[in-house]
Amino acid sequence: MASIGKIARRTFLIGSAAIVGGVAFGAYYVSRPAPNPLKPTEGEAALNPFVLIDRQGVTLFAPRAEMGQGVRTTWAALIAEELDVELDQVRVLHGPAAAAYYNSAMIGEVLPGKGYDRSNFMHSVAETLGKVGKVIGMQVTGGSTSMVDGFERMRAAGASARETLKEAAARQLGVARQTLRTADGKVITPDGTEIAYVDLAVAAAALDPVKADVRPSTEWRLVGKSQPRVDMVGKCTGTAEFGIDVRLDGMKFASVRMSPQRSGMTRFDASAAEQMQGVQKVIDLGTGVAIVANNTWIAMQALDSLDIEWEDAAYPPETEQIFARIASAFDADPNSEMRDDGDVETIPTGATEISAEYRVPYLAHATMEPMTATALFSGTRFDIWCGTQAPIFVQRHCAEAVGLEPAAVDVHTTYLGGGFGRRGEMDFAVLAARVSREMPNVPVQLTWSREEDMQHDFYRPGAIGRFKGAVQDGKAVLLDGGIATQSCTQQTMARWMGAPAAGPDKGTVDGAFNAPYAIPNFRIRGYLADMAVPVGFWRSVGASINGFLLDSFVDEMAHAAERDPLDFRLEIAKAEWGPAATCLETVRDMSGWTGKTPDGIGRGVGFTYSFGTPVAQVIEVVDEDGTIRINKAWIACDVGIALDRSIVEAQMIGGMIYGLSAACFGEITFAGGEVEQMNFPDYDAIRMHTAPVTEVAVLENKRHISGAGEPGTPPSMPALGNALFDLTGTRVRELPFSKSFDLLI
Amino acid sequence: MSTHLTINGKSHQVELPGDVPLLWVLRDEIGLTGTKFGCGVASCGACTVHIDGEAVRSCQVQLSDVWGKVTTIEGVGTPDAMAAIQEAWVETQVAQCGYCQSGQIMQAAALLAENPNPTDADIDDAMLGNLCRCGTYPRIRAAIHTAAGKMKEA
């Protein structure tokens, strides 16, 4: 096992040595097939980890977290496409935590290089490297990787299952497999005889799986067309089961009060709680207290009656001190210098120089469903039901918490009431496991209050960006940026693997160093502030910071160059990467961009490349009697291959609104070591009346497929800031904007 | 304390302290989990139900104060027999994570009952208390207009 840990550590090192180390180390493990986690019983046949057939019909497994991004539908469509079944004929399930369900794209994401300049060779290196995910249990939904990951693998799984079913039929009929065809869940002979898959499954399961090529896109029936989502009816009738909806016989309900300073507890007094009607048990968790009761509300009320003294935080207790630590990171050597074109030390003669400092706050995820998990511990087995983006890590960490082997732990993944990165953590499941260990044989559902959820997040870190730029004859000639923040990658890897990642952290500078802009002298450096403030992956991770930092500054450069901000970007994008330029041109044409706006209206453009997807947005704001409202938005993105346009559009709009919520209102601050925000009244978001009317263009000019879940978020923030500048003439370099402008709330 | 409730046309006798919010009675006692917990302070709308047709935040209504017949999302329609508003939601492919949608539908249903022809401004006013972190607002708006059309046909 030691060498697996080593692979993990080396894999997350970023640089050529890491690739060699990762692949070389992983060669043996990587080529070893993962066992099929589906254990068919009598009359069932698991043709591969993604297709199970029994007498009732076909079940497809889409073992990625369905957190709203439509993955369950599109993965099922990819399998169904090749298997020749219709989506309304099949059941789609998540399936267990299993190595076979590793994410092949996520580790490939850590490859060095900007991404958009990746050659076909590098794409195949990424695929090979990605298989390391199988070894280290990287069954993770995140990084906008599900479509990159599933596009080839799910079709291959469907094609193999189809051909294996045909082979079974061929043997039964004594004909060649090639003479048979498939449709509607049946194998069909040349004379029209039909044999249902369900009647062939058991025979097929006894055969070696047949390898088959996937069909060309010209033959697609389902993929590339918008499908009715398989989760839609359940979610519109209140019948979809989220983590918080799990109900088991004899279940009790619990809640927790954990240290708001993320520290220990010196003493607590639960005497009042113990007297309360409906309270079952008070559990000392060392760093907090859990109360088990007859319903969740009684548990929460009882927690409010506790008298607790907490230890001090292990991080600077005040926001100002935290930002001082971030600023001091600039005094040390940079952690990364992933872009260094030309010479940024010398300002070209005759060029106009500008400089600016930007600042963004810490942010909470604030999923609509607060953290929750349901657990049942029998002494020798442990079951956990929750919405998780990382079931294998949940399995391992819960096993440790209850003192069992991972094999004795079953993870049942429900729908997620929002993920955004928050449910890639294990803390909520582990707490449920610890409570459950104290209540053997009693199912316990642990639900956090909204206040507990907001105060115990792994936050998008605050950051400071320092930029110097130079323009000459209307052109960008120099851009030198430094970004100082905490590393989400380092903290998250330490939590997931128990081994911190080291080396240059791509996440910190993502969305900046890989901006597809041709500027002859262009450098981006990342600086890490080493602090214990809990931080983690938040929709679009580093790009959520750098989209605002870099692209706002590019806007300032355009104005310094006395150029139209969209034309200015278009020029440097065109010279670097065509698909980026096409996004800008598309959003220009959709919005009827003229560079001029009447009094009372402001427009701004924003552009970010993240997770392989370039996205350009134009945002329009209006001044209504002194109150500013976001009126309209236009989005152009390029995902290479749009597997389901309706879902891609929804993700783009949703990603943008998530970003606008942060840009307008989002800020987590610290006082006395505790997060000050508690609930939606002090951590508000875009609502119906503040959401812009939006048009989306989904382009397919890129050669390779890329994700849609996150890339809509980063450009929204600079686009809004640039629009506010256009409207008011005031350049605000710090978020959220509600601190500087009278925004409609 | 024993309280009688009528929920989705069915009679329930509940043995709980009178100060327990209706939300938790529905979810943890009766097992109607379609109504969601989001904030506990009436700022997100995920727990919206109807009492005598009026949209209320069930996290703020104490059991002892329930003044009429309760309707939850389960009482609006079922997967096999959806109400027009739910059909409109499905046709428009509104939901992403879906967690807030029960509350959105209950709020929108109350709006449409009162105003069969809501303008965009009416929708803004009625729906601004219902938060959606996935940002499904444009499709919710479209679905409300679609539902209004369906309900006129019916």
Compact overview of the structure:
The complex is a heterodimer of chains A (745) and B (154). Helices cover 32% and strands 22% of the residues of chain A.
How would you describe what is shown here?
Chain A has 745 residues and is of the alpha+beta class. Chain A has 3 domains: 160 residues, Aldehyde oxidase/xanthine dehydrogenase, molybdopterin binding domain (Aldehyde Oxidoreductase, domain 4); 147 residues, 2-Layer Sandwich (Aldehyde Oxidoreductase, domain 4); 314 residues, Aldehyde oxidase/xanthine dehydrogenase, molybdopterin binding domain (Aldehyde Oxidoreductase, domain 4), CATH 3.30.365. In chain A, the strands form 7 sheets. A 7-stranded mixed beta sheet of chain A has the order 10-11-8-18-15-16-17, with helices on both faces. Chain A has a 5-stranded mixed beta sheet with strand order 13-21-20-19-14. In chain A, strands 1-2-3-4 form a 4-stranded mixed beta sheet. Chain A starts with a helix and ends in a 17-residue tail after the last helix. In chain A, 61% of the residues are buried. Chain B is of the alpha+beta class and 154 residues long. Chain B has 2 domains: 74 residues, Beta-grasp domain (Ubiquitin-like (UB roll), Roll); 70 residues, DNA polymerase, domain 1 (Orthogonal Bundle), CATH 1.10.150. Chain B is 39% helix and 14% strand. Chain B has a 3-stranded antiparallel beta sheet. Chain B has a two-stranded antiparallel sheet with strand order 1-2. In chain B, a hairpin with a 2-residue loop joins strand 3 and strand 4. In chain B, helix 3 crosses helix 6. The longest helix of chain B is centred in the last third of the chain and has 17 residues. The radius of gyration of chain B is 15 Å and the shape is globular. The model of chain B has no long low-confidence stretch (mean pLDDT 97). The interface between A and B is large, with 66 and 64 residues. Chain A: Pfam families: MoCoBD_1, MoCoBD_2. Chain A: It comes from Sedimentitalea todarodis.
